[in-house]
Amino acid sequence: MTANKNVRDWVEQMVKLCKPKNIHWCDGSEEERLRLTSEALQTGELELLDQHKLPGCVLHRTNPNDVARTEQLTFICTSKKEDAGPTNNWMHPRDAYFKLSAIFDGCMHNRTMYVVPFIMGMPNSAFSKVGIELTDSIYVVLNMRIMTRMGTAAMNELGNSSNFTRGLHSKADLDINRRFICHFPEDNTIWSVGSGYGGNVLLGKKCLALRIASYLGRKENWMAEHMLIVGIENPAGETRYIAAAFPSACGKTNLAMLIPPKALSQYKVWTVGDDIAWMRIGPDGRLWAINSEAGFFGVVPGTNSRTNPNAMATIKRNTIYTNVVKRQDETVWWEGHDDPAPEKAIDWQGREWSPAGKEKGAHPNSRFTAPASQCPCISPKWEDPKGVPISAIIFGGRRARVAPLVYQSFNWQHGVFVGATMASETTAAAAGQVGVVRRDPMAMLPFCGYHIGDYFKHWLDMGKRIPKPPKIFNVNWFRTGADGKFLWPGYGDNLRALLWILQRCEGKGDAVETPIGYVPSEKALDMNGLDIRPETMKELLNIDKTAWLEETAGQKKFLDTIGDRLPQEMTQEWKGLNQRLESMGL
Ligand code: OXD
Ligand code: MN
User: Fold this and answer.
1) Across 418-439, average pLDDT
2) Is 286 helix (H, G, I), strand (E, B) or coil?
3) What is the pTM assigned to this prediction?
4) Parallel, antiparallel, or unpaired for β 22-25 and 165-170?
């Protein structure tokens, strides 16, 4: 219980609706974690893993119909439809509350309602926001305890204020026809029902930290972005920070935890965050960012000691694994693990599994939830309430063709256009077809809590307000050759592109001006220790006029869907790009 009457009144109302058997107010203590874990082990909601090899680790399996974010069931509920814009599903708040109330009514009949207070951000920071999630899932409580500053600290931060996000979640009956993730930005409220998948139910993450926060950021002159934050320390001991937006499951966690290749071992890379950046203009006129989360909810398949040794070290203890393979020795495995596939194991659906069969053992969107503090390269500044100053913003997608390895925009406005028109091949992080190219502006398509045209305008306005704005770049690690193989080694070698980016921020680094922006000149990237053929490098940095004219046609199609809230600066940039491409030689 709490002395905060705003909280008490609201919890009371939600209790009347959901009719739980018990109410538990979470304090975030270790004792509470142990008690809830033991209860979930008894009901089978969690399974214990080998506590010598994986101390503090547990396994959870979601319902097979509930393994990824369900964008088609996610709604922005503003009183005016046009405020949600063309890229969001919309429901009138009155209709949404009515429809979901019928599902929530009595849904916790035989269950406990957990009251989970949490801070997105750290205590005593101008960036932070408090939320409270009511849920009937112990899995959610334990995940929120890792992903946020949860419990007493959050109630202390809130004090007697009524300024908190009101989150209500119930697994209900996990029926996909009764699954809805509804956001009410005008009421600072989120209702999520019928799912147990992290992205739909850890309400601090996508729902608050991106959808609600993007709406608040526009009102309060700050930015909530789907971005990792990484610090790069040069041999002189100076660290510069980069924020980078990539769509889900495109390697943000790997980039944030990158290990420099041997030839560049004089650099150090520090992780500040792997998914969400909240950014504000600092007193020095630069853009400052915090990671508003306290843990990583990362994609498991493909993680190994070559692709991401830091993640492998992070997830050795106190980690919740979701939808991975359980080996006979009660450890975990997934496709792309260091170890060969186990001959006999239990797959993500709890069935006996062997690699001889056709099906994957781990779900392609299986996840780990691990405390950020366990990451060997966690930045000493990751919990600094002031945040870190951002030198460069990067947009990136998964593109087999068209986009070169790296390029720099001409200026902020052009950079906003580059972000607004970015596209990527879809991944398993959202339900639906995988590998289809779709426009995903600033990697925020599924996460922008208001009209996307107004969001572009907010970016443009912020650019005018920031006295010393970061420079804006685009990267593409995923370009393939005629044989379908990746042209760029990726992972640690991505540092080479980041170093060029930081040089450009300091007015150094060689570049050639092309119609799409500044591309590194032939010898500009530090290729020390990397054996890559000059023809391959040429292809990686090549701007193909025909492919780019096709690309701008795709951009136009998308921009046309935005309607009259598309800022005219975006049309102007699109025309400029076309003119520059048209006048380019073949
Ligand atoms: C995530 C996502 O889980 O983007 O971070 O889906
Ligand atoms: Mn994400």
Assistant:
1) 89
2) strand
3) 0.97
4) unpaired
Q: CA of 127: how far to CAs of 14, 147, 387, in Å?
A: 28, 17, 8
What gap in Å lies between CA 345 and CA 54, rounded to an integer?
A: 17
State the average pLDDT over residues 562-566.
Answer: 97
Q: Which of 201, 228, 248 to mutate to test the pocket of ligand 1 (most atoms within 8 A of CB)?
A: 248
For residue 430, the model assigns a pLDDT of: 84
Name every protein residue with a CB atom under 6 angstroms from any ligand 1 atom.
69, 199, 248, 275, 297, 429
C-beta atoms surrounding 102 within 10 Å: 11
505 is catalytic: no
- The rounded distance, in Å, linking the Cα atoms of 580 and 572 is 12
**% of the chain surpassing 90 pLDDT:** 95
Q: What whole-number distance in Å separates Cα of residue 157 and Cα of residue 135?
A: 21
Kindly indicate the confidence band of residue 243, based on its pLDDT and cuts at 50, 70 and 90. Answer: very high
Query: What's the pLDDT score for residue 432?
Result: 84
Answer whether 529's CB lies under 8 Å from 558's CB: no
Assign residue 61 a region: left if phi > 0, alpha if psi is -120 to 50, beta otherwise? beta
| Protein residue whose Cα sits closest to atom 1 of ligand 1 | 248
Q: What is the largest CA-CA distance in the chain?
A: 72
Residue 100 parent element (H or E): helix 93-104
Instruction: Considering only CA atoms, give the Rg of the chain.
Output: 23
Which residue in 18, 26, 182, 250 is the catalytic one?
A: 250
Q: Give the tokens for residue 40.
A: 């979930």
Per-residue confidence (pLDDT) for residue 435, from 0 to 100: 83
Runs of H (alpha helix) within 387-516: 412-420, 452-465, 495-505
User: What domains are there in the chain, each with its CATH number?
Assistant: 5-45+69-220 (3.40.449.10), 225-293+380-582 (3.90.228.20), 295-373 (2.170.8.10)
Partners of residue 441 on adjacent β-strands: none
Question: Are 313 and 305 in contact, with CB atoms under 8 Å apart?
Answer: no
Element (H, E) at 574: helix 568-582
Cβ partners under 8 Å of residue 136, min gap 6: 18, 20, 107, 108, 111, 112, 113, 114, 169, 170, 171
Exposure of 420 in the CB half-sphere (CA atoms within 13 A): 33
